[in-house]
Task: structure prediction
Amino acid sequence: MQITFKKSAVLVIEPDGDMLHVIRYHLNKAGFEVIPATNGKEALEILKSRPVELIVSDASMPDMRGVALRKKLFLDPGTRDIPFLFLIPSAQPEQELPVLRNALDSWLAKPFDPLHLIARVESLLSRQRTHAELMRIDPLTRVLNLPSIEREVASDLHRLQRYGRCASLVLIDLDDFSKLNEECGYTFGDLLLCSLANLIVGNVRAADLAGRFGGGKFVLYLPETAADGAQVLVRRILEQMLASSEELVGRRMSFSAGIVEAPRDGTTLPVLYERVVSALAHAKTNGHASVHNWSNGSKVQTVE
Result:
């Protein structure tokens, strides 16, 4: 099977046809998909119908200045974070100042070496992807942060209803985590959190989602997995934690977990959250290292 990679889409706004052809040629050659536009109005119409990852714009278009276009895009949440590369005539260095004052990412003086253009484009895209990744990741544990995993789960719940599939939502909470922080310090608590995150990531599939819920809690979303299958996975992670935690932090640590299955136990994230929190609370009443499935009050499993 042949694997294909999606090219980064770059919108190039350049009124000079010859210059547009040169830019398009070199960006295509470097592996980018180029969407051409000759003025600001045309660019705005393009952005209504398709997303782009970067905009390369001439500073002085016939219908509007590039800075005005950037300000217009900045007011729209859907386009405000697209990085901008301005092309400024070398004879007009005074244009550098408004560029830097208007939240623009970079500029390049014309005429330019094509290698410099490619380097600027690649640098801006790399910076944007790093920023986007940081916005999705919990900085301590390196799993998804809560807003990111909630967006992913909410989106997938629509798929479950449409195609009649199932998934499980799991809420994990470290037992006696606050006590560990109080007695041993937050350094040990952070170490335990990172260790548990690594165990989770090492056991889930590529299609599964793992995120930090907050404090000592983690949330897992397991597509195509019924509640019984989720229990098997959670118990495996729990057993690994029990085996490794004493050496790691000097005491045997465990967690408890609640599990709900969608759409059987709910079709929306708020409902599933309410029920998985209830399942976790029920597990906690049964002592440490308990796993409880919300849909069956008797189905509590404890790992000693």
Observations:
- The longest strand covers residues 167-174.
- The domain at 146-302 is CATH 3.30.70.270 (Alpha-Beta Plaits).
